[in-house]
UniProtKB/TrEMBL annotation:
PANTHER family: CRAL-TRIO DOMAIN-CONTAINING PROTEIN, PATELLIN-1. Residues 32-56, 97-152, 192-216 are annotated as: Disordered. One of its GO terms (biological process) is cell division. Residues 455-557 form the GOLD domain. Residues 275-450 form the CRAL-TRIO domain. Residues 97-129, 138-148, 192-206 have a biased composition (Basic and acidic residues). Gene3D superfamilies: CRAL-TRIO lipid binding domain, GOLD domain. Pfam families: CRAL_TRIO (PF00650), CRAL_TRIO_N (PF03765), GOLD_PATL1_C (PF25099). GO terms for molecular function: lipid binding. InterPro entries: CRAL-TRIO_dom, CRAL-TRIO_dom_sf, CRAL/TRIO_N_dom, CRAL/TRIO_N_dom_sf, GOLD_dom, PATL, PATL1-6_C_GOLD. Residues 207-216 have a biased composition (Acidic residues). This is Patellin-4.
Length: 563
């Protein structure tokens, strides 16, 4: 490659980068303007409903009960089960019904042979018609030379009488010799073709024998569910419906997708991936934690870990390490599937949360190529196993980055995306996950190794603009410890805590003196050990004149008997 070509390539790459940056800046400006307009509109509204989700998915998960399907969907499921049953029983699941390569080759040879025979016949005919004309011309020349000599003429006449017979004999010998050579050539050519055909047939037989050895077990399973429909496993319909829905109930396309998934799992040895160890580097990049409102397992993906340059080089520095990253992601998916109940009415999908806080930008090409590869592989081989992908703490540049991923995603996958900015994380997550299952760093009440709470319910009150609400926590025992969690979405309120004894003559005890709490504050936990009966009062004063505030809280009264 010349220096000029390299320079031109660099210029092209630079132009592409510049174009991407310009596109990103345009997108960011549009988003900023949109957010400003949205903010103005929210301030003008009565704010009767909580706001916060910038982009919400329209996807709604369908039922897996056969009786709930449409008639066209029932037929598609029945047709797919028939095709799958035949493919497994007849051992054609991993083989295509194609004409033998040997037969195809023989047909081609036969056609070529016919063409070559026709050409040879035509050339022989031309040769036979031209030879007598040459002989006649030679005789005329001989006669012209011998006109002066009568004796020579007489001899010539005698020779002329005898020569036709000799010429005919000579021509017959030549023709016979030509035919013998042709015959020998044809025989040799046929022998070579025969040997080649025999060799090809032997190879084909070897391949067929190898394919026959790779039989499809009637007990074949996917994610622990038998695939042979005649076995009657209740999870079979659930699995097949996932492939049908991923392909809009087009039976042939769903069947091909299923076959490709099974081949992909075999080639990448996915069934044994749970036993692989990928080290500690990726341990904090994703984890399973809690359940959503529909009891689905929730998986949190933390992209900030890739901001560590040393770790980034270890993960993306070589082709093998990048391959390990993908396999680690597949392993995480397999672990999540183990928590599912793949039967009608069961929990059959996961909820994915993607935290983009402090995520490296688009300039980290290797990261985004890996994200694209992972999304495509998961989309193609784990259909309908993710109910939604919720992206939180989304930076401005994500809107530009998502356009790069869009061409690789199906419309159904896109419909499951939820995107929200940092200010609205908690409110967005509450649409899908109960407060007690949302980690405390995202505004919920879930803490690691928490011994203070177990199954206590979370309550909610709404504080109207310009008003206040007081939450009462009773302390009926003369001695005990009260523990409570409280969170105000978006805070920006005045807040205080106090204990009021039941005895009217006793003094009120200030637990937390009044203070203004900003919007970045997380959930608060506090406790109070009382020596007499009474109640804890939590007062929230909404200083906003336009926006209402959602207050979440729970409490527990710990006595000696309950500890």
């Amino acid at each position: 490659m010349t220096a000029e070509v390299k320079v031109e390539e660099k210029q092209v790459e630079s132009e592409v980068v510049i174009a991407s940056v310009e596109e990103e800046e345009t997108t960011v400006k549009a988003v900023v303007e949109e957010e400003k307009e949205t903010k103005v509109e929210e301030e003008e509204e009565d704010d009767t409903k909580p706001k916060g989700v910038e982009k919400i998915s329209s996807f709604k998960e369908e039922s897996d009960f056969f009786s709930d399907l449409k008639e066209t969907e029932k037929k598609a499921l029945s047709d797919l089960k028939t095709k799958l049953e035949e493919a497994i029983i007849q051992n054609t699941l991993f083989k295509e019904k194609k004409e033998s390569p040997v037969k195809v080759e023989k047909k081609k040879e036969a056609e070529e042979k016919k063409k070559s025979e026709a050409v040879v016949t035509e050339e022989d005919a031309k040769a036979e018609t031209s030879e007598p004309a040459v002989v006649a011309e030679d005789s005329l020349k001989e006669e012209a030379k011998t006109d002066a000599d009568v004796t020579q003429v007489a001899k010539a006449e005698t020779i002329e009488k005898e020569s036709p017979e000799e010429e005919v004999k000579a021509e017959a010998v030549v023709v016979d010799s030509k035919e013998e050579v042709k015959a020998e050539n044809v025989v040799q050519e046929e022998e070579k073709k025969t040997e080649a055909v025999v060799t090809e047939e032997a190879k084909a037989e070897a391949v067929e024998q190898e394919e026959e050895e790779e039989t499809v077990d009637n007990d074949i399973e996917l994610w622990g569910v038998p695939l042979l429909p005649s076995k009657g496993a209740e999870g079979t319909d659930v699995i097949l419906l996932k492939f049908l829905r991923a392909r809009d109930f087009k039976v042939n396309e769903a069947f091909e997708m299923l076959k490709k998934t099974l081949k992909w799992r075999k080639e990448h040895k996915i069934d044994s991936i749970l036993g692989e160890d990928f080290g500690e580097d990726l341990a904090s990049a994703a984890y399973m934690n809690g359940l959503d409102l529909e009891s689905r397992p929730v998986c949190y993906n933390i992209y900030s870990v890739f901001g560590n340059e040393e770790l980034y080089q270890r993960i993306f520095g070589s082709e093998q390490s990048r391959e390990n990253l993908l396999r680690w992601r597949f392993q995480l998916m397999e672990k999540g599937i183990q928590k599912l109940d793949l039967k009608p009415g069961g929990v059959t999908s996961l909820l994915q949360i993607h935290d983009l806080k402090n995520c490296p930008g688009l300039f980290k090409k290797e990261l985004w190529v890996a994200i694209k590869n992972a999304i495509v592989a998961l989309q193609d081989n784990y259909p309908e196993l993710v109910s939604r992908n919720v992206f939180i703490n989304v930076p401005f540049w994500f809107y530009a980055g998502s356009t790069l991923l869009s061409p690789f995603l199906t419309q159904r996958t896109k419909s499951k995306f939820v995107v929200t900015r940092p200010a609205n994380v908690t409110e967005t997550l509450l649409k899908y996950i109960p407060a007690e299952e949302i980690p405390v760093q995202y505004g919920g009440f879930k803490r690691d190794d928490d011994t203070e709470f177990s199954n206590e319910a979370v309550s909610e009150v709404v504080v109207k603009p310009g008003s206040s609400e007081t939450i009462e926590i009773p302390a009926a025992e003369t001695e005990g410890t009260l523990v409570w969690d409280i969170a105000v979405l978006g805070w920006e309120v005045n807040y205080k805590e106090e204990f009021v004894p039941a005895n009217e003559g006793a003094y009120t005890i200030i637990v937390q003196k009044g203070k203004k709490i900003g919007s970045n504050e997380g959930p608060l936990r506090n406790s109070f050990k009382n020596s007499e009966s009474g109640k804890i009062l939590l007062t929230v004063d909404n200083v906003s004149s336009k926006k209402k505030k959602r207050v979440l809280y729970r409490y527990r009264n710990k006595t000696e008997s309950s500890c």
